[in-house]
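Build the 3D complex.
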Amino acid sequence: MNSDDFKNDLDHFEQTCKNAGLKVTQQRMEIYRALLESSDHPSAETLYRRLRDRMPTLSLDTVYRTLATFEKHRLVHRLETKESQARFEALNVRHHHFLCDRCGSVFDFTWPAFDTVALPPTLGRIGTIERKNVVLHGRCTACLAAEDR
Amino acid sequence: MNSDDFKNDLDHFEQTCKNAGLKVTQQRMEIYRALLESSDHPSAETLYRRLRDRMPTLSLDTVYRTLATFEKHRLVHRLETKESQARFEALNVRHHHFLCDRCGSVFDFTWPAFDTVALPPTLGRIGTIERKNVVLHGRCTACLAAEDR
DNA sequence: CCCAGAATTAATAATTTTTACCAAAACAAC
DNA sequence: GTTGTTTTGGTAAAAATTATTAATTCTGGG
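Done.
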């Protein structure tokens, strides 16, 4: 992500907060920024540890509470994983997920061809679709390399 | 699922247990059967409640332990959801999931057209793929009907 | 610049989910 | 039958998440 995008995201964040009547506090800013800067879809705990350097007084409670607030206002997205700890990502470009079954890492990717495939007709009876996501499972390159030793 | 398929699944279950050196106990049988009979991807707690009628002495501990054992031997599959409680399904035909964002229900569907789409080339750098799954989000018909009132 | 209201903090605790422990009993498989 | 695995019951612990309360801090709007 280049610095312009970054600035835009932070602007969008401020705007969304204001629209929703949310105050733009230091903590909310930093938590959102940390999510933008992270590509590893951190959990609340991870974010907390990551931010304590910059913000020694930050409380874990605030991280959980803030993430829940963000989620409610669609600023962040809670990932679906099998792990016990929930993972989050800042909500920007549409993408899909690759999950490494060994180390649990999550990688993003885009797949334009997928978006054009017609959905199976049976879905009409199931419900209305608002989001389509692909989840791939496998081994990430790092784990593959580690296993070859 | 017709009763032949069902029998086949139970046979496959017994065979897999034996291959893995797992004893075919009453509890394991019933837990697996309950999963085969369920289309709602129940959690450990739900399975426990569901089975207590037939098996009053079953313990929750056993359900968790057994599901973990099954998962290790690839007899069941732990679903990825945002919910706190993990959900399980018996592992048979390949399918995708529709999640209702309102009531949390999970519906299965197949999508042959999806399976033929070429993956984006960028994935080569990420890792090797073992499973591809689509997760759709939306409102199930029941929730849509309820909202129209 | 000030004020009201919102948000955070600290410290603790409760809840929920999941897993673990033990000794005793049950039971599947050979 | 014997053996070794598994379940049970009861309890407990760990991990993840949410809540409480009062005091303090800070944002946003005037």
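Residues 22-23, 25-28, 57-59, 61-62, 65-66, 84 of chain A lie near DNA strand C (CB under 10 Å from a C1').
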